[in-house]
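Notebook B, p. 112. Complex prediction, attempt 2.
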Amino acid sequence: MVEGITNILVVGIGGQGVMTAAEMLARTAMTQGYDVKKTEVAGMAQRGGVVSSHVRFGPKVYSPQIDPGEADLLIGFEAAEALRWLPHLRATGVAMVNTLRIAPPVVSVGLYDYPPDPIGELAAAGIEVHAFDAGAIAEELGNPKLVNTIMLGAISDHLPFPAEVLKASIVEGFRAYKPKLADINAQAFDAGREAGHAKTVSRRSAA
Amino acid sequence: MNAVVQAKAESRHLLSGNEAVARAAWEAGVRVAAAYPGTPATEILENIALYPDIYSEWSVNEKVAVEVAIGASLAGSRSLAAMKHVGMNVASDAFMTQSLAGVVGGLVIVVADDVGLSSSQNEQDSRYWGRFGHLPILEPADSQEAYEMVKRAFDLSEEYEVPVIVRMTTRVCHVKAMVTVEGERIEHPAAGFQKNPQRWVMTPANAKPRLPLMHERDRKFRELSETIDLNVAFAGSDHRIGFVTSGPAFMHVRETFPNAPVLKLGFSCPPPLDQIRAFAGQVDTLVVVEETEPLLETEIRAAGLDVRGKDILPRFGELAPNVLRPAIKPLLGEPYEVPKRSQASVFPRPPTMCASCPHLGPYFALSHIRNLNIIGDIGCYTLGAGHPWNALDTCTCMGASLSMAHGMDKGRGESDEKKSIVAVIGDSTFLHMGMQGLLNMIYNRGNVTVLLLDNRSVGMTGGQENPGTGEDLHGLPAPRVDFAKLVEALGVRPERIRMVDPYELPTMVKLVREETKMEEPSVIITNRPCSLTDRFERFRSYAVIDDKCTGCGNCIDLGCPAIFVARRETVTAKSGKSKELVFARIDANACTGCHMCVETCAPEAIVQPQPQNRVIRIQPHG
C-alpha cells in the first residue's frame, strides 16, 4: 500500500447519484493538489444494479481500485448496499449510511430476504457507523435530489481536507451551472454534516 | 460546452480514458471519426462529437466504422475508429486486408477490451489482432497515457503507413485520472485521394508484392520496439522478481510491489525481446503480468527466456492488487494468506428492465406462451432471460438471433417438432448485423417469428442514436429507416408484418400467439421508445387500491420494477388446496404511468390517483 492515500468507496444503486458524488469528491481532491483516480463498476447499473465508485487520492496513485479491507470511508446511499461493501472497509474505517431501503424485484417476489437490520450488522462489525435518513432531510428541504449533497456533507468532517472546501466546491459547481440550486445545496450540505455528527450508531471499539 | 473541449494548453483535468482519447484525437488533427456504441468504448465517440472540427458519426456497425476510417485515410485525412473488443471481430475483415495495402492519413483503431466482463458476452484479448493483422499495438495504462499514446499512434501510423491499434481496457476507459493537456489542435489537411490501383486494388496480383513489404514493416517495428520511449524500464531495489507488464496491470504491479523492477511495455506489439532479455538478466525471476491471455509470455518463452506468468496468475479477469498478492508472494518465499473477512450475506441485485420498459410487454407475452424456443440477441432485451420472464434461450453475438433461429428451424430435433422458433432482436442490433440474417432466412424459406423490438435507441449503452431513430450522433435530424418497408423489401409478406404497441398486452399476446402458429416467417415490430430516453413520454403514476387487490399476482409477472409485493397470504381454496396470494403495491416514484399493469388486473385495482403537485423520480444515470 502506497503511503498517504485516502480511499473512499461510494456505493448504492444505479440512478441514485453515486457516481456524481464520487466525481465531486475526486474533483475537490484535485483542487487540493492531490493525484486522483476514480473508478466504478457499473456495467449495467442503469438497469437497477449495484454501483460502487472508488475514489483514491494522495501524493501518487497507481491502481484505481480499492482492495478489500482498504477503504478508509464508506458512503452508502442505501442500507443493504452499505452492508454488501462492508468487507472493503478497513477496521479503522468509517461508514456513513443512508438508512433508505430499496428492495429489488428478486427480494420483493420472495427469492431473497432483505437483511432485517443492516445498520446493526455494520455496527456489530466494530467499525464507526453513522446512519440517518437522508431522504427525510431532503424532503424537509423540499427536493429529494438533495440526498447526494446531504451524504457529502455528512462525510465531510472525515476527509483529509476541511469540510468547507468540499462545501465550496459543491456550491460553486451549482452556482456555475444551476444557480437556483446553489443555496439549497449549501443548506443540504450543512444539514447532512449535522446529521453525520448526531446520528452516530457506533464508535470504533478502542483497540 | 464541456470543459475539456475548451481546455487550454498545459491545463490539468480529471478525465476518463475515453475523454482523453477524444481530446488527443482532436489535437492530433483527426478529421473523421466513426464508431458503433459498445461498453466500455461508447464515450470515445460521444466525446469526439463535442469537437466541431471533427466529422464524427455513429456507423451501423464496427466494420462499417473501420471502412469509413480507411476511406478517409485514403483521402489523406487522419481518421479514427473506436469499438469494444467484440466489435473488432466484425471489423477485422476490413483491417486484415488494409494492413497489406496500408494507409495515407494516420489511421488509429481504438479498441476497448472488457477485462472483467462488466458488460459483455466474452472476454477476448484484442492484442491477438496485432499479431494476426501485422499491426502495432500501443497500450495505455491510464488517462494521461491514453492521451499521449493516441497522438503518438497517429504519427506512427503515418510514418509507417499502417493502421495502429490502441488497446484500452475497461479500467482505462472508465477510470478518471489526471491529464495534463499539452496543446492545441494541429491541422493535418487532407492531400486528396491519389489513384494508384497497384496499391489500393487488392487483387491477388497487386496484393502479392505487398506481402514482403508488410514483413519488412514488421521487422522495422521489431527494431523500433527496442528503442521507442514507450517501453520503459523502472529500476527497483528488490531484484528477486522483475515484472514485464502493460496496460492497467502496470498500475496494479506498481501499487503492489513498489520496490520491484518493472519493464512497462507501452508499445507491446511487436514486443522488444532484446530489451526483455537484458531486463531478465538483472532479476532473479521474470514474471509477466498481462490481462488476459498469455501472449507476451508465450513470445518471451519462444525467445528462449525463463518466465513465469499464467502458471501462477489467472487467465481471466483483472489482475488487481488483491489478485497479484496471493499469486506472487509465494514466489518470494513469503507465504500469503488471504485475509479472512466476514462476507456480508446480501441478496443479489441483478440488472433488470426499467419501469415502463417497452420490452416488458413482449416478454410478458413470451413468458405466457408455451412451446417456444426463443433465440435472443445483444441488447437490454437479453435481460428477458432473467427473472420473472425466463423467456430467452440463447444470446451469442450481434445479429445472431435471426440466423441461429433459422438454423434451429432447419435443424429441428424430434423434441422441437411442435415448437415454434422465435427470434428477439432490437432496432439497433437488427441494423447492425441482423438484417442479413433475415434476408438469409427469407431466401432459404425458413420459418421464424421475429420480434423486432424497436425502442428507437441503442438502449444498453445509454440511449445512443442509430438509423432507426431519426437522429444522428449529434442529435440532429437524420433520415429514418422504415422497418416495415425494410423487412418487406427483404421478402417478408406484408400480411406477416405486424406493427404493435407493446403496452397493449392483450394485443401483444394475441399477435405472438397468432404469428408463431404461421407456417412462414413473420416480423412483429413494436413501436414504443426506450423509457430512459427523451423520446419517452411520462404519464401520471398508478397505485393499487388495497381493498380491490385480490392477490392474483398477475401484475407482478410483468416484471416491472415499480411493482412490489406488499404482502403474502396463504389461503385454502374450496378444493382444499392451499394457495399463496400475492398482494401488490406500486412505487409512485418509480411508476411512469405506462398503463401496462392495468391490463393484467381483472379486478381493476390499479388506478391513477388524483394528480399530485410534485413528481419525484430517481434520475437515470450512466
